[in-house]
Amino acid sequence: MKNRSINKLKMKTIHFLKEDKNHETFSSSLRKNVNNYFKENHISPNGNTTMYFKTIAMVILYLVPFILILTIHPSSLLAFGLTILMGIGVAGTGMGVMHDAVHGSYSKKQWVNKLLGGTIYLLGSNTLNWKIQHNVLHHTYTNINEFDEDINSKGPIRLAEDSPLKAIHRFQYIHAFFFYGLMTLSKTINDFPQLAKYNKMGLTKGQNANPTGEYLKMIFRKVLYLVVIMGLPLYLTDFSWWQVALGFFIMHWVAGFILAVIFQLAHVVEGAEQPTLSTEGNIENEFAVHQLLTTSDFGRNNKFLTWFVGGLNFQVEHHLFPNICHVHYKNLSYIVEKTAKEYNLPYNLKPSFGAALSSHVKRLKELGRN
Fold this sequence. Notes:
The protein is mostly helical. It has 14 helices and two strands; from the N terminus they run ααααααααααβαααβα.
C-alpha cells in the first residue's frame, strides 16, 4: 500500500511537488487576485458585523433552550424540542463561530480568536485536538488516506478508497447517516486517546503546548462540561437521570448529524479526488492545486445555508484561504472559479445542498462496493 500510517508523520513529511509551472503560476495569480479584491474594496479579510450578529444568534440558540429547561420545568415533549434546538445551536456555533476563530480568521485580535475558539467546549470537545486534527492534518493532507483523519474508516463507514472493504459497507449509504449523529458524542470520549496519540507523535509540542498540562486541562474541562450540561438538569429539574441522559444524547446526535453531513458534502462527493502518494511518498501536485482537486463547493446561492453552516459550503475557498473569514467566501468563489478556468484547472461546484447530498450518497454506494 502506498499510503503511510499517520504515525509516520513524525518521521516523514509529504511534499507537494511543483513540477508543473502552470500550477505554480496559478497559485501566485490566485493569491494576487484575492489580495486585490480586499485592497480594491477596502475591507478586512476578518469578520464583520454579520459575523458578530451570527455569533450572538448561535450562542443564544444553544443557551436559551438550556436555560428554559432549567427554569420553566417544561413537559417532556417541550424539553425534547428544546434539546433539538440546543443541538442545532451547538452545530451552528461550531461551524459559524468556533471554526473561524480556531483558524484565526474571526478577528485580527488573537485574544478574540482564542476566546471564541473556546466555544468548542460547548460540544464537549477540546480546542487543541481540533487544531491538530483539523487545522494541521486535514488542511495539510486533505483527502489523503491515513493522513487526513476525516476520511479514515470509522467502524461501519468506509470513506477512503484505499481502506479495506468489508461486507458491512455495502449498505453504508443508508446506515452512515445514523452514525454521523454520533460524531460529537464520540469526541467527548475519543479526545482522550486522540490527544495521547498526538502527544506521542510530538504534534502537541508542535503547537507549543505542554503535553501533560494539556491533558490535565482537558480532563478538567470535560468534567466541568458534564457537571453543567447534565448535573444542573439533575439538580434543578424533576427529570430522572435517564431522561437527562436521553436529552444529552438527542442534543449531541442532532449536532453531530448536522456537522458530519456538512463536512462530508465538501470532501466525499463526486469530483473530490483522494490522491495516493508516489513511491517516494509525495503528492504530484502543487499544494493549491491539490486543494482544488480534493474539495467541493455546494449551494453557492443559498444564503441561509451559507449563513448557518459558516461558509463551509465554500470548502474550496476555505482550503485555499483558511485565514480569511467565511463571510467573504461567496465573493471569493467567483475569483477562484475564474482563475481556475484561466489555467484549465477544475472547480468543483454542486449547485445545491440537495445535489451535494445526492452526490455524497452515490459516493457512499461506490465506496461500499468497490
